[in-house]
Design goal:
The protein is mostly helical. It has 2 domains: 1-47; 48-88, no CATH class. Helices cover 77% and strands 0% of the residues. The chain is rod-shaped and about 80 Å long. 1% of the residues are buried.
């Protein structure tokens, strides 16, 4: 009986390790996809002339025209930070 229990516990442990590794791969892949999406959004917005101009003059019209609720909803974002190369 003892050998059976040891084998059974070992089988359960291997299954749990396999499940953990599978879940960690899923988490890793999800984070990678999210980072790729955010990188594409950042690249798109940073190359946009209107965004560059906004960094120069801080025109509130840019915010009203481009940073409305639909922007956040469509891009699945909670925050957009626009920072100059000087960090301001």
């Amino acid at each position: 009986m003892g050998v059976f229990v040891q084998n059974w516990l070992h089988t359960i442990e291997r299954y749990e390790q396999s499940a953990i590794q599978r879940d960690l791969r899923r988490i890793h892949n999800t984070i990678e996809r999210e980072l790729d999406t955010l990188s594409a959004i950042a690249t798109d917005w940073s190359a946009w002339d209107d965004t560059y101009q906004f960094i120069q003059d801080l025109d509130p019209g840019y915010i009203q025209a481009n940073l409305n609720s639909s922007t956040f909803t469509d891009l699945s974002l909670n925050l957009i930070a626009i920072v100059s190369s000087e960090g301001t």
